[in-house]
Every structure is written in C-alpha cells, then in structure tokens.
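hiii so um. not sure if this is the right channel but i have a protein structure encoded as tokens and i wanna go backwards to a sequence. like what aa goes where. can anyone help
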C-alpha cells in the first residue's frame, strides 16, 4: 500500500493528472455549450446542435470517469502510463468478464445511501441542538433552516469522501481479480469459490485445488 501511495504521488502523479485533465476538458466544453444555449439564441439549428453535442459529451464524460477509476488502480499498482493503464484495464475486464461483475456491483448505491442517512442524522442532531439550547443568534428562528441545511451538506460531503475508500477498494479488487484470479484462489478460497460459481468466465482457465480447470 505504501509503495502504491508513493508511486501515485511521485512517478505516476502526471498520469493521474492527465486522466483528470481529460475530464476537465470535457466539462469545460460542456460549460461553453451550456452558455451558448443560455444566451437565448433564436437559431433553432444552433440550439439543437449544442444540445446534441452536450448530450454526447455527457456520455463520454461518464465513460471516461468510469475508466479512470480502474485505470488509476493499474497506475498505482504497476506504475503504468495513463493510456497504457486504460487499455490494459479495458482488455483485462473484457477478456475476464469482470464487466458483468462490475455491472452487478451495488457498492456505489449503498455508499451513497449510507452517506445520505449519516447526513440526515447529523442534520437531526443540529436541529435538536438549536431547539434545546436556543442560542441568542437564532432567537427569531431565522437561522434554523440554513444551519440544518449546511450541516446536512457538510456531513454528506465528508462521509462521501470517507466512504470513497471502500469504493476504491472494490475497484482495486475487480482489477486485481482480472489481473490474477489465482491470487484470490490462494489468499481467499471462500470468496474465490463464490466468484467462480456466480461468474465462471472471470476465473476461466484457472485450475482449482483438484487440478481441474474452469
């Protein structure tokens, strides 16, 4: 872990920045297109073209962000350039069939719901604090809603950042599983057995302890 952290903050820092730059460029172009659409141009053709291009760029942005997450794993582990890491990650995921496992993964939804619930609890605590203590600055109650809303937004942002470690761990597991499923077979045979039963293509060609290949 420490070696991957060192590599990502030194030798591979440029690759990480390059991946982020691609997303930033797409977002910049989309912002320009939104500005064009918001100027109230009466030319219907221009508005239609800007809308279509914005939609296409939105899809591309989502794909780039999706691949960045897994390409960064290759960069952190092996120190590959961004383009090579993206190509290798795509090949591994498609060849091993890990894309089906990723599509069935609900970790992102669970983490978002967890962040929302934690933020709601924090907002409730903020409301209770204001109601019980009745501070002088809120004697008229005009600050109650802004304080509760601020507590909710700050708490949700903090929990999403903290829980991002779990999402990154899941992405790392998927990439490492595609790269070397035999390592999971050695280190966690029970998890390997469940993956083999649910997604046999992921462990295709790997021999089990009885020397039979899948």
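sure thing!! here u go:
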């Amino acid at each position: 872990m420490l070696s991957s952290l060192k590599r990502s903050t030194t030798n591979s820092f440029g690759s990480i920045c390059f991946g982020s730059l691609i997303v930033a460029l797409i977002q910049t172009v989309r912002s320009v297109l939104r500005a064009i659409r918001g100027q109230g141009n009466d030319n219907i053709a221009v508005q239609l073209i800007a809308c279509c291009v914005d939609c296409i760029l939105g899809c591309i942005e989502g794909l780039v962000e999706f691949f960045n997450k897994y390409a960064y794993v290759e960069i952190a582990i092996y120190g590959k350039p961004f383009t090579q890491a993206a190509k290798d990650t795509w090949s591994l995921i498609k060849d091993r069939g890990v894309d089906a496992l990723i599509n069935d993964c609900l970790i992102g939804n669970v983490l978002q719901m967890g962040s929302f619930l934690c933020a709601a609890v924090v907002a409730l605590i903020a409301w209770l604090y204001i109601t019980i203590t009745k501070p002088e600055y809120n004697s008229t109650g005009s600050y109650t809603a802004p304080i509760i809303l601020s507590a909710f937004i700050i708490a949700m942002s903090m929990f999403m950042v903290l829980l991002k470690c779990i999402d990154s761990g899941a992405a790392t597991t998927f990439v490492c599983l595609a790269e070397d499923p035999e390592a999971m077979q050695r280190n966690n045979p029970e998890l390997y057995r469940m993956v083999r039963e649910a997604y046999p293509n992921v462990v295709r060609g790997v021999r089990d302890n009885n020397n039979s290949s899948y």
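oh and The chain has a mean pLDDT of 81.
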